[in-house]
Amino acid sequence: MYKKSFYAIVALSLCFFAFMTVSAIAQEAYQSPYTPGQAMDISNSDLNKAAEAYIKISEINQDFQKAVQDVESPEERQSLQVSANEKMLEAVEKTGLDAQSYNMIVQQVGANEDLRQQFTAKLRDLQ
After folding, report:
1. Residue 25 and residue 90: Cα distance in Å, rounded?
2. How far is C-alpha 72 from the chain's CA centre?
3. CA 22 from chain center: how many Å?
4. Residue among 22, 12, 13, 30 at smallest CA distance from 108
5. Where along the chain do its domains lie?
6. In this structure, are residues 126 and 92 in contact, taking their beta carbons and an 8 Å threshold?
7. pLDDT tens, N- to C-terminus, the chain (127 residues)
8. φ, ψ dihedrals at 19, nearest 5°
9. Which positions fall inside the DUF4168 domain (predicted)?
10. CA-to-CA distance for 78 and 74, rounded, in angstroms?
11. What is the pLDDT of residue 70?
12. Greatest CA separation found in the chain?
């Protein structure tokens, strides 16, 4: 039961966070020369780093979602969002990746089934 739930959460999270993370971190990244659909070589090391960042970003997002529930003013929500975005960027950079590289890896994971399976396996190993 636990494994089945874990895989469902990972699959759903990949879809949600790929979109959310790309949107949030893209504010900090410069224009990418990467074109969607273009194959990209991703090293095992970079995939590990992206998985580590992904887990941390997931935790930051969960904290943000909890905190924003208790907020009523749009200014306070925006402040929480800015803070969460900064923490997400910091989490990516602590792994040794920059925002652009992380975004490209997450896009590739979302677009490539084999890469998604490798990424999911790395997430399981890190849990």
Report:
1. 10
2. 27
3. 7
4. 22
5. 2-28+43-126
6. no
7. 545 444 444 444 443 444 454 444 544 444 444 455 555 689 999 999 999 999 999 999 999 999 999 888 999 999 999 999 999 999 999 999 999 999 999 999 999 999 999 999 999 999 8
8. -70, -50
9. 43-118
10. 6
11. 87
12. 44
Joined tokens for residue 70:
């208790």
**Amino acid found at 127:** Q
Amino acid identity of 62?
Q
Q: Which amino acid is at 108?
A: Q
- Specify the amino acid at residue 80: L
With tokens 């800015």, the residue in question is 82
Tally of residues, the chain: 127
Residue 34 has what DSSP assignment? -
What's the rounded Cα separation, in Å, for the pair 108 and 1? 29
- In angstroms, rounded to a whole number, what is the distance separating the alpha carbons of residues 117 and 51? 12
Rounded to whole angstroms, the Cα distance separating 108 from 42 reads 9
Structure tokens at 59: 């935790």
> How many other C-beta atoms can be found within 10 angstroms of the C-beta atom of residue 90?
12
pTM, two decimals, is 0.71
